[in-house]
Design brief:
This protein is mainly alpha-helical. It is 39% helix and 8% strand. The protein contains 8 helices and 4 strands. It has helices spanning 2-5, 22-31, 40-49, 65-70, 74-83, 99-108, 140-151, 163-175; strands spanning 13-16, 35-38, 59-62, 89-92. The strands form 2 sheets. Strands 1-2 form a two-stranded parallel sheet. Strand 1 (13-16), helix 2 and strand 2 form a beta-alpha-beta unit. It is globular, with a radius of gyration of 22 Å.
Length: 191
């Protein structure tokens, strides 16, 4: 948003999310902002403090709506939607359209248009190779390391079921000399 706003004079931005200094956000809110990007929890926090007034909102964007609902933010999102004027443009973006997202769209949008964005992959499907490696819980890490050593990926993303597993796997990979890092919700905002 900052890159886009830099091409238009007079647009001020503010990002409001947890893990950030609230006092700094309060100072920026007092100066006014044309575009506020935030998480439901922090937006509600500012609404409760009465440091954020949504009466002038002309456009509401719900990005990653499926993930917000999956994470249990439905009530928070509905509270925010009810606080903005009913005469507004609403855009809802979602990678998937489960029933809960469609219900939200029907409840708060007027004649919503369903726009599907599809693009040709730069990599033809026939050039993608998928492998399944059967292993036990005990041999999973060894199997992963063998796959890394065999295929030598330039970059890779490894998905783990839990934050603890991600941290332990990262530590094990680093101990073995692999350049790796972890990414999960228990990391500080700075990390």
């Amino acid at each position: 948003a900052a890159k886009l706003a830099s091409t238009t004079e007079g647009i001020s931005l503010l990002a409001v999310y947890g893990g950030q200094d609230v006092e700094r956000q309060l100072r920026k809110l007092q100066g006014g902002a044309q575009l506020i990007i935030g998480t439901p929890g922090r937006l509600l926090d500012h609404m409760r403090r009465e440091t954020l007034q949504l009466g002038g909102v002309r456009m509401l964007v719900l990005d990653e709506a499926d993930q917000m609902l999956h994470m249990g933010f439905l009530n928070e999102v509905e509270t925010i939607i009810q606080a903005v004027p009913s005469r507004r443009q609403t855009m809802l973006f979602s990678a998937t359209m489960p029933a809960a997202v469609r219900k939200l769209a029907r409840a708060y949008m007027h004649s919503p248009a369903d726009v599907k964005v599809e693009s040709e992959s730069p990599v033809p499907v026939n050039q993608i190779r998928q492998l399944v490696v059967e292993c036990t819980d005990r041999t999973r890490q060894k199997a992963l390391i063998e796959m890394i050593d065999t295929h030598r990926p330039y970059l890779a993303v490894i998905f783990c079921r839990t934050k603890i597993r991600a941290a332990k796997l990262n530590e094990a990979l680093q101990t073995l000399g692999y350049k790796s890092g972890e990414l999960h919700g228990d990391l500080s905002q700075n990390k």
